[in-house]
C-alpha cells in the first residue's frame, strides 16, 4: 500500500499530475494532517507537502520508523535540496515505487526543529549568494550589491560548547551550520565533501577582524572555475561535532532554511540514520575510507581583548592591534628610544669599523659595521612616537638619533684626520651620489623594520634590515668629508643618510598604521611633516637621478662605437662645470693631436654639449 499525504488545497494537482503516475500501485490519498495513520511494515508514505509540513511530519515518521518518499512540491525546495532528492516528479515517483531498498539518512535538529539545508546565525548575508545561480556575473552583481553594507558590519559575542565541554568564547560576524557542505554556497567552497550520514555536522564560525581580509576572501570566492578554496582562511573556525550549543548574551537573530528565528541559546544535535527514505539520495554514499571524526579548528578565532574590542564597534578597514599587543611593542620601543651607554659605544664601534672598511675599500668589513649599528632602533621608536603623537617618545627618539649622528660624524672625521690618505675609494664614491633608487631602498627598509618589530616571531631579521638600509656607512663617509674639509663628499653622503632617515621614519610609521597600532587622526600631523621633509630631500635626489640617467645614456652611446675608424672603449663620465669624459681610443697607429681634436668634435655633436676630453690611446693589432 502507498499512502499519498497532501494538503487539501493540493487535491487538484494530486489528481491531475500525481495519481496518473501511480496507476500500477494501490494508492490511498490522505489529507494532511492525517487523523489516523497506521501503515504496515511494507507500506510507504508518499509526501506531497511543503517544507513546513515536512518539518512537523518527518520527526513523527522517524520515531515510528515509517518508510517515507518525498515528492517535489513548489514549496519544499529546501527539503529536496537538503536531503539530496530528485526534483523531477516522474523520477521521484519511479524511485519510490520501483526501488526495493530503504536508505537511512541522518537528521540535523536546531532547537528540536529539523534542518534541511542550513542555519545562518548573525550577519552572514555578505557571504551568501543565490544558491540557484551558477552565473559568474550574477555572483559579481550580488557581491557588489552587498558590499555597500560592509561599513555597518560588527561582531557579536558567542560562547560555543559541546555538551558540558566549553569549546571557545569568541566573537564573529556570523555562524553557518550545515549537515552537508552542499547545503550552503559558502560551505561548499570551504569544506571537503563528506557523507551526510556520518553522524556529524559542520559549523563555520566567520570572524574576519578587518574589512581587508574579508574583501580578499570574498574576491577569492568569486574567481571562476574555483570550486573550493585550497585552504580555510585563518579567520574561519570549523567544527565537526554531533552536538553543539551556541549562547549569546542577548537574543540573536538566525535563519533556519530561510525562516527567521530568534533565541539566546541555540542547540544543535544530529540524530543518526533517523529517516527511512524509500528513494535515491545523493548523500547516501558508502562509507569507504577512514571513519569521520570530531574536529575542532578554532585557532584563528578572536579571544580575550581582541574579542572584546571587535564587539564594541564596527569592523575596522585595516588590522587593529589589541591593547596587549600594543603594550608589549610600546614597552620595547620606549626602551629603544633612550640614549644609553651601550647605544653610544656600539655607534662608536660600528663607525670605526665602517670608516676603516671605507678606506680599505672592503665590502665585508662595511657589512659588519652595518650589523653592529644600533641606530635603526631609535628611528623605529621615533616612527611610533610620530604616529601615536607620543611627545615623550618623540623627544627621546630624536635626541638619541642626533647623539648617534654626532658621535658617528665625530669619530669618522677623527679617523680621516689621523689616516694620512685622501683617496676616494670605490666604496666612498658609491655613497656620494644618492638617487631616487636610494629612497626606494629606504621605503622598503622602513616597512621591514616596523614589521619586524611588530611581529615578534621575525625580530631576528632586523640584522638584514640594517644591512639593507645601510645607515652608518653614509654617516662615516660624511664624517670623512668633514675631516677632509670636502663639502662635496660631506653633502653627498649626508644627503644619502637623510634620505634613509626620512624614508624609514615615514614608511615605518605608515606600516604601524596599517598594522593597527595607531589611529590615523593621531598620526596625521606627524606624517604631513615627514612628507614635507621627504619632498625636500627628493629634489636633490631627482637631480642626482637625472645625472645618473644622463651618464648612462652617454656611456651607452659612446661605448664600443667607431669614430673616424677609431674604436672607443672604457667610457667614464664625470660632472663639473663642463662635462668631463674619459675614454680609451683603440687604433692601429698612434693618434695625433689633430685626429683627437676631430674625434672630440664628433663626440660633442653626438652628446649635444661641449666636453673636456681625457684620452688614453691604445694600439690594436
TrEMBL record:
SUPFAM superfamilies: NAD kinase/diacylglycerol kinase-like
Keywords associated with the record: Membrane, Transmembrane, Transmembrane helix
InterPro entries xref list: ATP-NAD_kinase_N, DUF389, NAD/diacylglycerol_kinase_sf
Pfam families (alphabetical): DUF389
Residues that span the membrane, as ranges: 340-359, 365-387, 399-423, 435-454, 461-482, 494-515, 527-545
Domain of life (superkingdom): Bacteria
PANTHER family, alphabetized: AT15442P-RELATED (PTHR20992:SF9)
Database matches in NCBIfam families: TIGR00341 family protein
Protein name: TIGR00341 family protein
Gene source species: Autumnicola psychrophila
Upper taxonomic lineage: Bacteria, Pseudomonadati, Bacteroidota, Flavobacteriia, Flavobacteriales
Amino acid at each position: 500500500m502507498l499512502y499519498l499525504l497532501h494538503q487539501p488545497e493540493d487535491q487538484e494537482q494530486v489528481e491531475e499530475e500525481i495519481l496518473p503516475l501511480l496507476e500500477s500501485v494501490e494508492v490511498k490519498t490522505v489529507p494532511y494532517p492525517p487523523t489516523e495513520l497506521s501503515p504496515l511494515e511494507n507500506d510507504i508514505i508518499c509526501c506531497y507537502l511543503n517544507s513546513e509540513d515536512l518539518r512537523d511530519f518527518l520527526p513523527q515518521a522517524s520515531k515510528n520508523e515509517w518508510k517515507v518518499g518525498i515528492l517535489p512540491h513548489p514549496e519544499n525546495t529546501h527539503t529536496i535540496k537538503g536531503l539530496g532528492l530528485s526534483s523531477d516528479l516522474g523520477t521521484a515517483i519511479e524511485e519510490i515505487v520501483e526501488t526495493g531498498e530503504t536508505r537511512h539518512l541522518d537528521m540535523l535538529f536546531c532547537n528540536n526543529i529539523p534542518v534541511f539545508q542550513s542555519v545562518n546565525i548573525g550577519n552572514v548575508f555578505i557571504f551568501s549568494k543565490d544558491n540557484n545561480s551558477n552565473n559568474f556575473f550574477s555572483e559579481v552583481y550580488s557581491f557588489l550589491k552587498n558590499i555597500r553594507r560592509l561599513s555597518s558590519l560588527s561582531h557579536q559575542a558567542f560562547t560555543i560548547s559541546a555538551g558540558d565541554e566549553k569549546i571557545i568564547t569568541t566573537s564573529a560576524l556570523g555562524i553557518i551550520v550545515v549537515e552537508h557542505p552542499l547545503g550552503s554556497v559558502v560551505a561548499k567552497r570551504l569544506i571537503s565533501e563528506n557523507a551526510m550520514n556520518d553522524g556529524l555536522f559542520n559549523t563555520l564560525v566567520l570572524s574576519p577582524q578587518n574589512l581587508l581580509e574579508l574583501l580578499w576572501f570574498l574576491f577569492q570566492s568569486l574567481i571562476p572555475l574555483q570550486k573550493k578554496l585550497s585552504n580555510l582562511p585563518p579567520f574561519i573556525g570549523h567544527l565537526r561535532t554531533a552536538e553543539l550549543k551556541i549562547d549569546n548574551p542577548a537574543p540573536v537573530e538566525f535563519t533556519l532554511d530561510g525562516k527567521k528565528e530568534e533565541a539566546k541559546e541555540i542547540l544543535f544535535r544530529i540524530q543518526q540514520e533517523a529517516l527511512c527514505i524509500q528513494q535515491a539520495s545523493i548523500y547516501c554514499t558508502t562509507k569507504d575510507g577512514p571513519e569521520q571524526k570530531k574536529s575542532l579548528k578554532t585557532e584563528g578565532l578572536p579571544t580575550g581583548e581582541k574579542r572584546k574590542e571587535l564587539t564594541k564597534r564596527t569592523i575596522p578597514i585595516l588590522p587593529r592591534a589589541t591593547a596587549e599587543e600594543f603594550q608589549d611593542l610600546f614597552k620595547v620601543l620606549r626602551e629603544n628610544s633612550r640614549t644609553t651607554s651601550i647605544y653610544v659605544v656600539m655607534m662608536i664601534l660600528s663607525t670605526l669599523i665602517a670608516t676603516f672598511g671605507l678606506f680599505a675599500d672592503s665590502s665585508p668589513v662595511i657589512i659588519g659595521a652595518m650589523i653592529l649599528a644600533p641606530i635603526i632602533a631609535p628611528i623605529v621608536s621615533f616612527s611610533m612616537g610620530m604616529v601615536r603623537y607620543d611627545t615623550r617618545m618623540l623627544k627621546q627618539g630624536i635626541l638619541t638619533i642626533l647623539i648617534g649622528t654626532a658621535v658617528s660624524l665625530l669619530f669618522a672625521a677623527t679617523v680621516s684626520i689621523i689616516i694620512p690618505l685622501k683617496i676616494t675609494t670605490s666604496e666612498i664614491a658609491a655613497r656620494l651620489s644618492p638617487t631616487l633608487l636610494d629612497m626606494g631602498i629606504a621605503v622598503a627598509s622602513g616597512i621591514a623594520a616596523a614589521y619586524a618589530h611588530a611581529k615578534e616571531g621575525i625580530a631576528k631579521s632586523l640584522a638584514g634590515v640594517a644591512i639593507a638600509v645601510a645607515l652608518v656607512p653614509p654617516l662615516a663617509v660624511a664624517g670623512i668629508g668633514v675631516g677632509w674639509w670636502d663639502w662635496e663628499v660631506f653633502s653627498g653622503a649626508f644627503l644619502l643618510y637623510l634620505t634613509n632617515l626620512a624614508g624609514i621614519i615615514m614608511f615605518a610609521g605608515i606600516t604601524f598604521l596599517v598594522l593597527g597600532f595607531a589611529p590615523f587622526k593621531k598620526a596625521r600631523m606627524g606624517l604631513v611633516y615627514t612628507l614635507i621633509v621627504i619632498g625636500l630631500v627628493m629634489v636633490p635626489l631627482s637631480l642626482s637621478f637625472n645625472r645618473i640617467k644622463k651618464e648612462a645614456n652617454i656611456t651607452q652611446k659612446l661605448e664600443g662605437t667607431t669614430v673616424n675608424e677609431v674604436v672607443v672603449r672604457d667610457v667614464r663620465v664625470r660632472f663639473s662645470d663642463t662635462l668631463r669624459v674619459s675614454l680609451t681610443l683603440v687604433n692601429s697607429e698612434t693618434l695625433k693631436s689633430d685626429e683627437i681634436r676631430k674625434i672630440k668634435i664628433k663626440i660633442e655633436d653626438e652628446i649635444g654639449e661641449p666636453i673636456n676630453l681625457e684620452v688614453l690611446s691604445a694600439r690594436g693589432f
